[in-house]
Design brief:
The chain is of the alpha+beta class. The chain contains three helices and three strands. A hairpin with a 2-residue loop joins strand 2 and strand 3. Pfam families: HTH_17.
């Protein structure tokens, strides 16, 4: 097993959020985590999977369709 276990602070830094967000993901069971005694760690692969699963691709406009700003 070569998967690195990240702390909540490391996950927050990676995601560019506060520590509250990864803690909420853990509390809502929306991300895989490991309990090490009273500490919580998130496997690096689980974080990558979470990011990939929540990545939204842009919508490319179809040919001939122009988008206008609505005033």
């Amino acid at each position: 097993m070569k998967d690195r276990l990240l702390s909540v602070a490391e996950v927050a830094e990676y995601l560019g959020t506060t520590e509250r967000f990864p803690r909420r993901l853990i509390a809502e069971r929306r991300i895989v985590f490991v309990k090490v005694g009273r500490h919580v760690r998130i496997p690096e692969s689980a974080l990558e999977s979470f990011v990939l699963a929540n990545t939204v691709s842009p919508i490319s406009p179809s040919r001939g369709t122009a988008y206008r700003a609505v005033a």
